[in-house]
Amino acid sequence: MMKISVFMLSILFCLNVFSQTDTTTYYWSNQKVKAKGVMKQGGIEEGTWKFYDQNGKLKQIVTYRNGIFDGPFKNYYADAGISEIGSFYKAKMDGPFESYYPNGKLKQTGFYNMGFLDSNWTWYSEAGKLEQKGQYDLDKKVGDWVYYYPNGTMKAIFVNNDRGAILKDFFTDSGEQLVENGNGKWTLYYENGKLKEQGFYEDGLKSGKWEYFSENGNLIEIGEFINGLKDGNWKTYHSLTTVIKLNAFYEAGKRVGKWSHFYQEGQLAKEMSYENDIESGVYREYFLNGELSLKGFYENGKKSGEWEWFLQDGKKDMTGSFLEGMQHGFWTYYFNTNGKVLSNGFYTADKQTGKWQYYYENGVLWKEGEFKEGLKDGHWAYWYENKSKLMEGSFLKGKEDGSWVSYFENGKVKDQGSYSSGLMTGEWKGFYNDGKQRYVGSYVDGLKSGMWSFWNEKGQKELDQNYEEGRPDGLRISYYENGKVKDKGSYSDGIQVGKWEYFYDNGNKEMEATYKKGRQDGKVITYHEIGTIASEKNYKDGIPNGKFIYYAKREGKVLKSMIYKDGKKVSESK
């Protein structure tokens, strides 16, 4: 069935929309109109809609009825006028149809019947010459189809019936009839005068030896037809050389016997066998250097039994078995660097099943575990290259589930906690490689929740932070290595709020401020390390607003003061 380009509205609702009383307009990101038309209540298109490209060029006019294509449409080239004219009925092409070349010349004309090509169809060249004409009956060619040369003279008449397309008459471009009533010689030429194809028709069907040539005159295919079907030995050649590309055999149009494919250099590329048009028996592929690339076996057109893949240096790439065309049984994959095993395990009906093992390049086991229906299921364990345990835990239907523990190479626990359907859940703990605690906290549905505590490598607490749904929420206190508080305040949904205090490592206050939606708001006081006030500042929504006073370190003497309004300094005094 002929494909007609139609802009759909499925992506338009992510664009800016501006509505008037009964017309809706959609815009491209560059503010050019993308589409406009009437939208009924409930977002249903109605009547004529126009669609434009990003340059503002009209692309299509289409008619809707209750949200589906129904009525006339026109498609346009970007810069060359109408490309297609037709109609829809209940979202299917229906009625007369015409298409045009960019130069405005008629390309084809015909008729659709509820989406099917139907009745008379005619095609023209870009120069306006008749190319072919005939009839369809619900997408099927029927009756006489007539074809023409570029110079306008008749080329051939085919009769379409239950036997297919049967040649009736064939003429040269000068008008000489070569085939009459289905009998005679068929000869076609390229525009450069070189022979393109030649052979005989008998009772409207190809018969006897046929030859096909490239534009440079080289033979590219040769073989015989019997009653319009390929039969016997057929050879295909690489177009730029006389080297054979394919040596094939047919019997009444069906592939049979041994088929051999060759590289352009002449070496065998692959070989297989067919029985009654179905691939069967041994299958092999080769590298250009002659080394075997893969070998296997087909049964009733499906891969079966043991298959092996190789690298160009002769090393194995992978091996395994097929059953009814699907991976089945034990499979092994290899590193392409040293030929050692990369992984191995079982398949059932194309899905990994049972125990699988994976290895490092040096042959040391990396991980092993169970699959069920192609998904990890059950206990899995992982190791470092020094053979010490890396981590272990369980999967359920391809997702981590239950307790998991990871380890340092020295065997000490690194992290431990639980999963539920692939998401971290419950209490999790982390440690340094000497066993000292690194963190402790809880997850809910894979997100941090509640109070979390963190320690440095010396065992000193660094931070207490409350979380909700993975974001800081509630109290936060951080600490210096000497145990004194570094800062203290609160978050709401990941944003600083309320009173915050900052301290020097001697315990003296460094700054106190109030935050509103993550911005300083109100008075902010900073302190010298000895405890005296260093400055007093006023902010509104993070912008300086009000008096700023700076004090000397010891005397408490005012060094200078300024007044800001909406972030701009309006006065200063010393």
Provide an overview of this structure:
With 574 residues, the chain is an all-beta fold. The protein has a 54-stranded antiparallel sheet that branches. A hairpin with a 5-residue loop joins strand 15 and strand 16. The radius of gyration is 40 Å and the shape is flat.
Give the helix proportion (percent range): under 10%
H/I helix tally: 0
> Mean pLDDT, nearest integer?
94
> Unreliable runs, pLDDT <50, ≥5 residues?
1-21
User: Which fold name fills CATH's third level, the topology of the domain at 1-93?
Assistant: Histone H3 K4-specific methyltransferase SET7/9 N-terminal domain
Determine the N-to-C terminus distance: 87 Å
CATH class wording of the domain at 1-93: Mainly Beta
Q: Rounded to an integer, what's the Rg over CA atoms? A: 40 Å
**β-strand number:** 54
Descriptive tags:
574 residues; mainly beta; flat
Per-chain topology:
Elements: E1 17-19, E2 23-27, E3 33-40, E4 44-52, E5 58-65, E6 68-76, E7 82-89, E8 92-93, E9 95-100, E10 106-113, E11 116-124, E12 130-137, E13 140-148, E14 154-161, E15 164-171, E16 177-180, E17 183-189, E18 195-202, E19 205-213, E20 219-226, E21 229-237, E22 244-251, E23 254-255, E24 257-262, E25 268-275, E26 278-279, E27 281-286, E28 292-299, E29 302-310, E30 316-323, E31 326-327, E32 329-334, E33 341-348, E34 351-359, E35 365-372, E36 375-383, E37 389-396, E38 399-407, E39 413-420, E40 423-431, E41 437-444, E42 447-455, E43 461-468, E44 471-479, E45 485-492, E46 495-503, E47 509-516, E48 519-520, E49 522-527, E50 533-540, E51 543-544, E52 546-551, E53 558-565, E54 568-573
Antiparallel strand pairs: 1-2, 2-3, 3-4, 4-5, 5-6, 6-7, 7-8, 7-9, 9-10, 10-11, 11-12, 12-13, 13-14, 14-15, 15-16, 16-17, 17-18, 18-19, 19-20, 20-21, 21-22, 22-23, 22-24, 24-25, 25-26, 25-27, 27-28, 28-29, 29-30, 30-31, 30-32, 32-33, 33-34, 34-35, 35-36, 36-37, 37-38, 38-39, 39-40, 40-41, ...
Protein name: Toxin-antitoxin system YwqK family antitoxin
Pfam families: MORN_2
Signal peptide: 1-19
